[in-house]
Model the fold of this input.
Amino acid sequence: MGFDWIFAGELAINGALSGLMYSLIGLGIVLIYKSSAVPNLAQGALAMLGAYIVLAFFDGIGLPMWAAIPLGMVVMFGVGTGIERFTLRRMAGQPIVMILMLTLGLDIFFHAVTLTLWGGTNRSLSYGIPDDAVEVAGMLIDFTYLAGGIIALILVAFFTYFFKTRKGIVLRAISDDPVASWSVGISVENGVGLSWAMSAVVAAVTGIVFGAIQGVDYTLALLLLKGIAVAVLGGLDSVLGAVVAGVLLGVLEGMASGFLDPLVGGGSKDLVVAGAIILTIIVRPHGLFGREDIERV
Done:
């Protein structure tokens, strides 16, 4: 029996589309690090919170989905701004490990608040994209994955452009040297608040995209592991790296699930994610496209 190229191609394409959606969660982590040099471990819980807020507008209030999604993004913009205003601003001057622990605490907090308000029952979410598969050259391509991949590419293109604008350059300056930014009149607090607000909006989009595929429940918060793998592999300060790493990770996962799972009984996807994080840190700590900073001592 020869190698099934059609099956392999199907796994690779669907894996790449899935990886593009992984890049959404990684993009939220990159946005925070790129503009404030803060590792964000709350992105998974923010994605879950954003999806539940959209569902609250849709199921709870009865708004159409075309109105519920923008309103949910507005609320998440406020949540991101509030995180900076009421928590991170008080951490100015503290060691980075303390800020890292704060974001982990925020992840646990938002996870608990979301489950307290809405429970842990899986709820369906649909933003109007059919969940059928389309056949291309004998390969079945998941249409929902295709739509999610397109959304991811649009957001990546937007933020790639954004960081070339004056405002984006200001955020990079804040990340490089907040003290120097203060000295030339840049509002560091507002810049960091904007980065968290944008990241929270991206988290909402992530929750909506994955919620349409797997439903909305506590498992959306577990996307954080995928996001960390994407951000570390691509480079914590690289928007382009998030896309490339997401696609690479998705393809590897797809191939592993298709060819290794039948042999080992499952779990190869988690092995791919863990291996990507460990190998990247050991071999190339700044990631595929991250900036390698050299500090003089």
